[in-house]
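seq as requested:
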Amino acid sequence: MAIEDDVCVIGGGLAGMTAALRAAREGARVRLLSHKKSTLRHASGLVDILGYADGELVADPFDMLSLLPKTHPYRRVGNDAVRAGLSLFDDVTGDAYRGTHTDANALVATHGGTVKPTARYPARVAPGLASRDRKTLLVGFDSLTAFDAPLAADHLAAAGVPGTTRGVTVAFPGDFRADSRVTRFARALDDDETVETASGSTPVRRALARTLESHLGNAERVGFPAVLGEEESQEVREALESSLGVDVFEVPMGPPSLLGLRLEALFQEALDEAGVRRTTGNPVTEFDASDGRIQSVSTDRNGRPTPFHADEFVLATGGLVGKGIDSDREEVIEPVFDCHVPHPDDRYEWFDDEAFGDHPFARFGVDVDDDLRPLDADGGAEYDNLRAAGGVLGGADFAAEKSGSGISLATGHAAGRAAGAAANQ
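struct tokens:
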């Protein structure tokens, strides 16, 4: 029996989930295909719109969007789509995120001691905004080497953030394995496990507060790596604040990121509520097209293809990092539909001689029309019923601009809305 849907979204990251959710809210029957886990679990959980332009820090992203090149994804969809994407995000995340009160970027300290301009940030991060002039203590754990609190504090001081920042490394209370994952610490704090300390058996939250008492000094807030619970972060932070007498916040971490995992879970809950069917674990390996339209895509499981038919399709497979765009020594390709990816024939023109130069490859991706339909080499639509969103789009240097999440939300929203509307015609 054929699997039939109105809209099929390929890719389970932020852009794909946004497109699927928006299409479902148009009344379409939607299927989301993803062959691997979302990249959100590797991300910080911060949502950026535009952090830098021409190497300069951006205070208000919406002041700068109209100045970007016409080929930039933001220019393709327009400011209204950027705001609509943010609005969908705010609806999905509710009170779990902050930043809705202003268009201006907030400055968030990262685990590396850098300051990131961002538009939306988890509530558990909010008390630690780097722009606030407060005496800050950063706390690292000797068994969690990914966060060197003293080094991060030194970097923040060198960056000139307001207030003073100190860092200290302590032992996490209890007898945990040296190679314990961040989720192990989070679960212990969620459950307030009893641990053995020098003073006897003690709930781990109280033991952690006691460990820090001698280091607190005149600190007005304390920042921990983002491991303060998977499900009960607010409760954990309130318990620590009550014991320490100061505000407590979390510092976004690298993979595996509990903040990213929580964001992924919020979107998955919204997809389930909207009735989006999710099929995961197998890549799209082939497709069928006729008369300028895609008829179906097929996933592969142990050499056995499974076709998925739909009226409209959205490509949201990511960029170079996610392999939504791939390359060899001769060319750059889009591997699912073989969409045209503009790039110089001479591969030495793909990059800059300087390691931190303006590398052309960072902007490689499919070119699209104003309806986000990928264009062929002659400037015509590859397929009438295919749209692209997120990192697979060309024209933006996500890493340099700090724009990846915003582009995923804006173009995912626009592509999902267009696909859902077209499917209902």
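The CA atoms of residues 130 and 160 lie 10 Å apart.
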